[in-house]
Specification:
8 helices, mainly alpha, 151 residues
Length: 151
Amino acid sequence: MASLSEMIMQQVTSAAGGVQIPANLKNQVIGGLTDSILGGFTQTAAKSGGLDQIKSLLTGKAKVASSPVTTLATSLFSSNILGSLNLDKKQGSALTALIPTVIGSVSTMFKDQDGDGDVDLNDILAGLSGGGKSSLLGAAAKSLLGGLFKK
């Protein structure tokens, strides 16, 4: 299973090819979009009910455009990356508009990986952590599981 991070990077690189980006900023833009989208997923996963929100998104039960993941990723990109790039407003808007497209593509890829169209919470955690354990996600999972089992 490809990690969610790898899927995001692949889709960002593909989608960014359709937007004119100064050559000297291309790596920053691709890295910034990738980090912002991954940040949207990981920060949402760390919140109470976040994994269920991500599951709804990845299974197509939630609309990409109104998803908390998309909203957060857009906010992260706008506040942390876009301002430092000194792009004109049109380029900035075009790049920000890629976020829902990328998340939608990643959702489709993630859902189709196992062939049954379903995603379980273990798939989400594995996808976010690249198949291994991440301290942020590990803490989120322990917190969620601890709450379920009153530990």
